[in-house]
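Troubleshooting entry. The earlier prediction with 5,6-dimethylbenzimidazole gave an output that would not parse, so I re-checked the input for stray whitespace and re-submitted. Clean input:
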Amino acid sequence: MPAPFATLSDFRALLQALPSADPAATAAAEERNSQLTKPPGALGRLEDMAIWYAGWRGVARPALERPQVIVFAGNHGVAARGVSAFPAEVTVQMVANFRAGGAAINQLARAAGATLSVHELDLDRPTADFTQGPAMTEAEVVAALSVGWHAVDPSSDLLVVGEMGIGNTTPAAAIACALFGGQPGEWTGRGTGVDDRGLSIKTQVVAEGLAANPDRDPLEVLRCLGGREIAAMAGAIAAAHAARIPVILDGFICTAAAATLAMAAEGALDHCIAGHASAEASHRALLSKLGKQPMLELGLRLGEGSGAALAINVLKAAIACHSGMATFAEAGVSGA
Ligand SMILES: O=C(O)c1ccc[n+]([C@@H]2O[C@H](COP(=O)([O-])O)[C@@H](O)[C@H]2O)c1
Ligand SMILES: Cc1cc2nc[nH]c2cc1C
């Protein structure tokens, strides 16, 4: 089946027409939550998560049984500029590791009871160096959005998108700076662990990329400063929205991908929650620009969807409480 968009302009129009959560299911879940055997609010943000999930699934008492984790891999022209602590060949090597079951995400997806799929995007053809002009042509960014769109299993009931791409904290920083302003240095962090010299090169590369690509339209920002795995994550997040499948966002790169959607269409991330705040310096700031509060903060800075996969367990627990607890009436417990 072809993607429901053939151009960036089609994709933009699609984003404007995405559905909302079901208000009746949200109201019924709120009502149910108010009757469960606990003091009001005593389960804290678990209560909000369960109600949010119920609204998107369209049922007052939902189950979370079929979570899907998708990892997208891409290579970046800017990697040749010395912006990462690791060489670019690690991207394809890690894809082999994902397929062999040896990466952190393999263990974390299994621990969360989630399926895991891996999509590599033209790894032998890195995007163009964005300090010299746009990272991708329109055809390239649309193809990557489309890979992401089709990777989503419509029968899943939760989506985590993650990425693998040596150098990709540089495009993520450039996207954040283009969308939200401020200085390149405020958005640029150490990624896989660059030293001070690497950080200064990286900040310079981000500044050059912003100067070489002046268009601040959010989807043009994705095309000019992004990468294929970043666009694929955006496509998958949009596909999940169209199918009312809730999404847990992962780290800095995933959140930068999501931010392009949020800035392109109001409400585009209403079906998303933030799984964690990564240790990448500006991830918290980016989440706060999107009005998202992270579920976890464990110092992770791995990518691969790892922080979001961990958060699946917390969301499952929130839904288990919401859907499994007795009401005051059922349990014969006196109210306040
Ligand atoms: O998810 C994050 O916040 C995160 C923070 C730092 C690094 N990463 C991962 O590390 C790679 C990018 O780091 P770098 O230094 O090569 O730009 C890429 O494969 C990401 O999955 C991921
Ligand atoms: C080994 C390694 C694993 C990763 N997983 C995601 N990004 C990564 C970067 C490196 C370097």
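This one parsed fine. The chain has one domain: 65-325.
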